[in-house]
Amino acid sequence: xxxxxxxKAACAEARAGLQEGGIPIGSVLVRHGQIIARGRNQRIxxxxxxxxxxxxxxxxxxRQTSYRDCxxxxxxxxxxxxxxxxxxxxxPRVIVGESRNFSGASDFMRSHAIELIDLDDPECxxxxxxxxxxxxxxxNEDIARD
Length: 146
Hints:
Blueprint: H1 3-19, E1 26-31, E2 34-40, H2 53-61, E3 70-74, H3 80-89, E4 93-96, H4 106-111, E5 115-118, H5 122-134, H6 136-142
Parallel strand pairs: 3-4, 4-5
Antiparallel strand pairs: 1-2, 1-3
């Protein structure tokens, strides 16, 4: 399994979302070394309070009988909403591009025996840092901060 290859695919989703006018967070769902779904934060594009990158990715995966043989990749550490879905679906492994811009729900996922790997990828970090600097109000809305 090539974590760098899959985080780059998630980053491509994040860049596509940014080009659409959205928040640059992307995700891919992988089973047996193959991407089975892709997603990106769609809160702005779809006017949705819940379509974070991971949620959009999982929705794009459609119905699955199990997620226990999957890995989800996200450019940013998942929030509690996305982490709760990951726990609920039993996804055992989460690979994130970075957590310096947002620490998310790492302790929550680890407390549910999810293997969590933070790649601290420079591209993922810079993409989010630039967005947060340019659009602090949109970012605060995305993470439900006043």
